[in-house]
Amino acid sequence: MANIRDVARKAGVSITSVSNLLNNRSHQMSGETRLRIEQAMGELGYHPLRNMPAQDKTQSPIIGLLVPSIVNPSFSALAHEIDLAARAYRYRVLLGNSYRQEDEERAFIDDMFSQGVRGIIVAASDIRKTYFVRAAERGMMIVSYDNRFPDGIAAEARIVDSVSMDNIAAGRLAAEHLISRGCRRIIFATEATLTLSRSHKIEGFLAAMRHGNIALPYRVIEGQANRECGDAEMFELGQALVSQILAIDPRPDGIVAINDALGIGMMVGLRAAGVAIPGEISLVGIDNISLSGLASPALTSVMPPLAQMARLMVERVIRRMAQPGLPPGEYLFAPQLISRQSVRIAGH
Amino acid sequence: MANIRDVARKAGVSITSVSNLLNNRSHQMSGETRLRIEQAMGELGYHPLRNMPAQDKTQSPIIGLLVPSIVNPSFSALAHEIDLAARAYRYRVLLGNSYRQEDEERAFIDDMFSQGVRGIIVAASDIRKTYFVRAAERGMMIVSYDNRFPDGIAAEARIVDSVSMDNIAAGRLAAEHLISRGCRRIIFATEATLTLSRSHKIEGFLAAMRHGNIALPYRVIEGQANRECGDAEMFELGQALVSQILAIDPRPDGIVAINDALGIGMMVGLRAAGVAIPGEISLVGIDNISLSGLASPALTSVMPPLAQMARLMVERVIRRMAQPGLPPGEYLFAPQLISRQSVRIAGH
After folding, report:
1. How many residue pairs from chains A and B have C-beta atoms closer than 8 A?
2. The overall pTM is greater than 0.80
3. CATH number of residue A286's parent domain
């Protein structure tokens, strides 16, 4: 089994640094060093908790997981990875669906407290909402998935861990890929409800457009999901957006979809309208759901390292439950472009 | 709000019958009557538990849910419907993935006992396994999803509730649809691991073949998933089966896939091999996952009434936790064929 020495070697840091992190003396450590150590622990299967004082018997070996909707393939994949990571620590996952409703988020937190659950991972509408902040103040260890505090908030004011894909990089990667393949009239398609992670994707997209000297008409188009729980409807929304896209003159030759489900819906709608993909319009999604490799043509997409992220989230929750004084951290994971068949070959 | 009178009227039974069921005097009631009453309660939103003595405070308001893998879209849809039904009773769902491994099933049961959870819904590899039987004997209220006790077991020996789609009817419906559209060389494609529900689907398929006087070569082909947790691999397996299918001489003109994921995988593989669907081969799936309507061509499929089934499962677990003496029941739900574009039009 891996020991602290192996972790230090793999992370390229001193044993003292690893020890500092494990013993809550990491306030002077850079976020990047901390992340390297955490990742080395994850990859080596090093579980410092096994050496910790036995868990308080009244504390439940349950981690709560709150997602917008488990039917959304991005979140069923997340739940799967979190369950795998939690099982390695003999924790179980208590599942909640919020449907992006505040009432459901509030009820979930109340239920976790009354269950004795003291650690939750949340893919929330907005982690800055009062009830999340209050819950953290009352001792709930919260890890926020894909939902950061805005830049400019002091480290001391951060009361939850935040684990995200670098969404700015994701939007930029998708857009740069289209530009490098020769697309020049590029749009970004999204659902209208703007979470911080969605804003970041758009920000990355716009930065790539500016940097690539892409003139107008690049633009962001958006559609409104029918119900509050927009995620399960992404496919349908993608199909519905197609008429808007085809009404743009001159017609776009590249689209970044805010998620793969929306992208696959657009693909179905574009094909029904007789538009060739990638011949006439190239398409890139974000999320890399398993379905995307099976779409026709297979959808090029930007992939978050979900298993690594899940492992870190579970470790953060468990470590902070054992050491409540541990300051929360912010962790950004670099995304990767998975190139498939939905983007034209440059020069064709 | 609906009362006991409304339930009796809707179910077409006497108020006494409803009262007998609610008060554990249903031993002489036919399964069919019981089912009618339960369904009427579900449809009317009648919750007899509200009139019951308050729940034991030491009992956890948690229901366990054990599925093979939450990444399989059939089971993420199930988890979603069960969560919705459980929330109506203010219960939460504790999720387990078994990956069809006995160790994981056993660990799940142990954890539920130590959590104080006394009711679980399980989509198990085989509900007759000793650890499920022992758990039921120790007071765990178990509802088995899509996994019946074999016919011929006496009612008294049934110790878990069983809620299933009528899988024999499902296999038959799929096959009859192909026959009615003129297919004559029909095969049934499945993963090799035979659960009871899979055997039933094949049984229904074969019955339809005999009844339709379809001569050989109807046959069952099967592929073996690489890992034990076959469900997440169904797509890939479907693609892999295509070479077997195309090697059959004369070539089949109709395929029933044991589930939609396998069917969509076959569709991708057949298309890659230049086979027209439904022009040359018609295809019917079973499960009706949300993706099937978006495949190209959209996949015809046999649909279980999942929301109704989830509601009944949650109600059975909660009612039996409140009244442990209540005998378990067996509930079969009729499936429905959803006709889309993957089956040829008769006469063409």
Report:
1. 81
2. no
3. 3.40.50.2300
